[in-house]
Amino acid sequence: MEKGNIVWLEGKSRHGKNRIDQHGNPWTVNAKGKFSGNDAVRMRSERETFNIGQGRKIHDERWVFLKDDPNFWVKCDADAMERLCDANIPTDWLTKDV
Question: Exposed, middle or buried by CB within 10 Å (0-12, 13-18, 19+), for 34?
Answer without folding.
Answer: exposed
